Structures are given as structure tokens and as C-alpha cells.
Batch of 2 targets.
Target 1
Amino acid sequence: MLKIGVLVSGGGTNLQSIIDSIEDKRLDASIAVVISDNPDAYAIERARSHSIRTEVLPRGGFAAREAYDLALSALLKGHGVELVVMAGFMRILSRPMLEAFPMRIMNIHPALLPSFPGLNVQKKALEFGVKFSGCTVHFVDEGLDNGPIIIQAVVPVKDNDTVEDLGKRILAEEHRIYPQAIQLFSEGRLRVEGRRVFVKGGAEADSALENPVATIFGG
Ligand code: GAR
């Protein structure tokens, strides 16, 4: 069974959706360890309450990003991790991690990449005036929210949305697609060619979405 290591920094709702998917037998994987860079992350409590091993690796003790990532990769390898899952882990990874886990690190981002990489992206999407936003699961490379895209889910942006409303709508989709992406990996169904990720046996979507749907041409 695929052994995953989940990296967290905060509330851990994505971690929770992965735990729930495993417990409901929708995801065929086991969580070998949850690692947080933030000792106060609520995600740690979530892991502990499901008897999952946890480690805290604060950034403070390391002078350079590479030194931190070397220690992080050693910790993950020590727990036998085969796939690294970044679930709200707010750090950009450097060479030691990317070399230790080539195309074996996933991240989830609350926007339709390549639009709105970085932080506070729900607010940026609202302010920009996009009609759709969503979330993206992707493999991690050296860029910020940049690697090959595995799954995206789209949500509408409504006229009276607050940042919180939009964030909640996106988060619900995150909780749906992240376990799916991990399951596809665990079934060996993801093939990466350059920037493109193909899903073996995946169905194709061929219809368009329109937002807002205005009645213009009669009907
Ligand atoms: C999620 O919305 C995730 O997409 C985002 O942090 C949140 C973590 O929530 N990650 C990023 O913005 C990474 N660029 P959670 O701790 O409740 O899972």
C-alpha cells in the first residue's frame, strides 16, 4: 500500500479529508507521518486523534532552505514515505526535497493555476473579477505553484461573494479532488509528459461552462 507523508502548517482540513477518505476506503494509502513546520498547527491534533505519527520540524533551527529540506527529506525517508502530500504547507521546496522525491510531491492550491499563484489568492481572484475560480492539484517543481497539473475543479464566483464564501466553496472542492489525485497516483494511473499529466482510463470533459448564464437569445 502506498505510504504517504503529509506536510502541514495550519488547520489541516485537507489532511482531514485524506484521513476520512482512507478510513472510508475511497483512498488506498496509509499516512506514514504528518510533519508540520508550525508547532501550533491544528493539523497535528487531527493526526494525533487518529493515531497517526507526527513530527514538528520548525524552520527556525536552519540557516538555509536547502538545509531545512535536507532534514525534511531525511525525516520523510525515515518513515518510508513514497509520496509527499503538501496540504497547506506554506513553503517553497528546494533541490534536496525535489531530488529525493522526483515527481513524487503533490501540492494543492486554491486557484485555477497558472492564475493566482502565491498567497491570499481567493481575495485576488475576487478583486480581479474572474467569473470562475477553483483549485488545482499539481506535482511540485522548483517554481511557485508551478508543476504539472493533475486535477483541477472549477467553482463559480457569485456577485455577492465575500472572500470567505469563495474560499469555502473552493475548499469543498479541494477536499474532493485531493484524495482522488492521490488515489490515481496509488493506482499507477498518472503519466507525466513534460508539463502534461495524463490519467490512464480517465474520461474526457467536452462541455463548456458559462458564468453568469444570461438569457439573451430568447428562451
Ligand atoms: C488550502 O486552501 C490549500 O489549498 C492552501 O492552504 C489551505 C490549507 O488549508 N494552500 C496553498 O495556498 C498553497 N499554495 P487546510 O490546512 O485546512 O488544509
Target 2
Amino acid sequence: MTDTAYGMWIGGQWCDSQEGECFSSINPATGEINGSVPRGQAADVDRAVAAARLAFDEGEWPRMSYQDRGEVLRQIAHLIRENARELAELETRDNGKPIKETTLIDIPTAADTFEGFAGMAGELKGETIPVGAPLFCHTRYEPIGVIAQIIPWNYPLLMAAWKLAPALFTGNTVVLKPSSLTSLTVLELARLMEQTDLPSGVVNIVTGLGPEAGRPLAAHPLVDKIALTGSTETGREVMGLAAATIKKATLELGGKSPTVVFKNADLDAAATGILATIFLNQGQMCVAGSRLLVEQGVHDALVEALVEKARRIRLGNGLDPETSMGPLISAAHREKVRGFIASGLKEGARLVSGGRVPDGKIFEKGFFLEPTIFDEVTEDMEITREEIFGPVLAVRGFATLDEAIALANATRYGLAASIWTNDMYQAYECARKIRAGTVWLNTYGNFFSEVPFGGYKQSGLGRELGGAGLREYAELKSITMDASPDRRSLITKWYGW
Ligand code: NAD
């Protein structure tokens, strides 16, 4: 994994973009160039979609058994595990996230995802429906066709696995576009797939920028479904592009997830959990717990504990095994996050921790930012309303259970929530009444390939993972058969012949 000039993977071949242009992939901790990547355009998208179309319409993949496709997914999982160390290092260099995280979370979970879906044939069982003899009716799931998949930069390899594994297992063919900021591990994954029994053209990787490669992919008339993980703004645009040909769409979008802490919670466990909800992956998580609601009476003690623990978070180059927080993804993104911090100060929130670019030689060339905590926020502030996608926590108090639920729901997003309490009534009232696709009780951030994940409200459409996520990649067909001896049960009644 030392090549620095990468190609795109189309129809089983490595190639440059038709225009021959490239862009650089940067290490956000040092500003160094990791590699050059082809800058794909509409013509490259056309080639990739044609390859995927051919593999679907004439190839063996959609016609293979679940068992055989599952075996290929297991081969991919095995190769990811065999190359885990190199993939973890490359992900850290390309994205900036700590090696601890890529080693413990991103890479093994990507392998688990392929393996998990490889065993999910039971989730694609049809039904026998008793419509009345002599008719016999049953349903079956079939692949949809060519799937366009567009993914973000925050979990590059893992998001690719979440998208590819269910789409492939159900028998579809795919054109996947990684984020232009982090294409490298996805291209390495393609190199690993080359070593498996995956037929050519079943997976195609087009690299490039959103407007230049993503847009023509989402709009392509020969694509049957688009699956996007990205911001709500991009989701809105992609949904519009999909409308022209009534493509199916799954959209996994932004969030502004609440963490609710009640007085009787284990405050020390809650404080550690809260730090993870907002500072893991530098806060660049769709499920970041960016709004903290704390019951009066424990508010001050909890904020004090958070500030004390936040000071102990070690910032640095992600390749250092001691680092627990790396740089943000890019200079532009750090400026955007700093803009939110300035807005919080201007609107009167109380900054209790962080907020600055850290001092020190090791931070000079990277895009680092301190873990930041604002207290005494109000609902009208920008930092309470907008997805910041960075290490910025907005804290406020609440007095009653009803108020906590109302505040938790005071957002246009609905991706996740985390509740900390030792009272089962409080826990379940929150879990039932908070309008979000995932609720964690006394925990945070647990994902499993068997458990569906997705958003309410403007956090998205459809589900990923689990049986529900798998079926997003399948068409449901009803088959009705006349089992009477003369095959005349229904039609005859109509004409009377
Ligand atoms: P983004 O929306 O800027 O980009 C996501 C992908 O879409 C990239 O590959 C990009 O190149 C492409 N893209 C951009 N504009 C496009 C267009 N007009 N047409 C087609 N494709 C286009 O998001 P990002 O900055 O890469 O990632 C951060 C966002 O992703 C956050 O909002 C975060 O909440 C969200 N996210 C959601 C989930 C989830 O599961 N709900 C998971 C991870 C990230």
C-alpha cells in the first residue's frame, strides 16, 4: 500500500479519468500529500454505470445464490482482516482520526459488516399469503439493479462497507463514489475485492468531487437506486436529482442529537459517555451528541466533570498511539467550525472549555481544534440549531421530564439520542417520545450489522444495517398462481365463457 498515484476501478480495470485530471489527498495532521486520485467527471460516471448495467443485465451476480454471494462477502471480510494494520494506518493518514479508533472501530467493523450481511439470507424470506383457494400467492425479494452509492469522509471504509455489503448480498451491482477528501481506503478495498471471486463490473469505484462526479451519478438515467450518506443539504439536492427518473433513494443525513442526563444517573459514567458522544472522531459524527440537556441539581457538577475530563483528552497526530483526538478533516472545515464557535460567543453562550486552535509545533501544519464546551445555551442560538460536525458541545439545564423531551425534540433532525438515568420510567418515556431513529439508554454509539439505523425527520429516508437495511436494496415481487384444474378461477367469472 505504498502507491501514491491511484486509479479508478471500472469494469474490473484500473483507469484514469477520461480528462486525465487528478486531485491530491491530504493528511489533515500534517498537510502532507498522501496520494493523487483521478478527478472523475460525467463521462467516467457513464463508463462506470455502463459496466454496472452490463454486470447486472447479463452477468452472473444477480443470478447467483445467497450462499455463493455470501461466500464472496466473507472473502472480502477475510482480506480486510488480513490487511487490517495497513488499512488502519492509511485511514488515519487520510482522515486524521486516531489510529486507536481505526484499529479498534473502523477496520474491524468494516470486516464484521461484510461478514454480518453474508449470513442474512433469512432476512429476505418471502411470505405465503392466504388469498383463498384455488389461488396461491407468495412474495419474493429480488435485486433492484444498478445502485449508485455516495459516501462521506468521516468513516470512509466503514461507510463503504455499510453500503456495499447489503447491496451486493441482495444481488445488485454498484457504482460507489467516495468523498474526494478520503478516497484511499475505498480504493484499497477495491484492490482487495480484485482478489476475490467478485465478477468484474459488479463493483465500480468512481472518484471525484460532489458536483462533478456525484451529481451525474445521482441523476443518471440507467441507475435504479441512489443511496447517499452525507449532509442534509446534499440529501435535498440528490433527492431532487433522483426524482427525474423516480429512482429509489435511501438518504442517511445529518443530525443534532440530544444527550439527556437525569439527576439519578451514574454521573461519572455519563460524563465519560458524553465526551465520547461529542469528541470521538473529533465530533465529526452524524450521531454526535452535540446537545446536552442536564436536569437541574446536577447541572453544575456534571459540567465541572466534563471540563475536567475534556482537559485530559490528548490531541495529536493520529498515528501516535497515545492520541485520542486528531485534527479536523480540512482547513476549510475547521474554519467552518470556528465560525460556529464565534457565533456561540456572539450570541451569549458561556464558553467553559476549549474553543481555540491549540498552541505547539506539532499542531502548526494540521487542522487541530480544542474540544469545546458551551454552557447556558438557548434554543434560538445557531450552535443549538445547526449541525456543526465538529468538537463543540452545547449544554443547557431542564427542570422536568416533559421539558427534557420537548427540548430533545426541538430540532429538525432525528437521528439519535442518548439517555442517562437509573429510572426505567424516565428511560422508556424518553425512548418512546424522542423522535429519533436510534435511542441509547445509559450507553452511546453501539452499532451492529443486525440492528437497523437511520433517521426521522430531516435526518434521512430509509434504514441501513439489519434486515430493514438489507431490504432497502431489494424489490418485493408478488406472484399469484391459479392452482385450479382448469385454470379458470377468476377470468372466467368476469367474461362468463
Ligand atoms: P457532503 O454532503 O458534503 O458529502 C457527502 C458525499 O456527497 C461526498 O461523497 C460528496 O462528494 C457528495 N456530494 C456532495 N455534493 C453532491 C451533489 N450535489 N450531488 C451528489 N453528490 C454530492 O457530506 P460530508 O461533508 O462528506 O459528510 C458529513 C455529513 O454526512 C454530515 O452532515 C453528517 O451528519 C453526514 N453523515 C450522515 C451519516 C448517517 O448515517 N446519517 C453518517 C455519516 C455522515
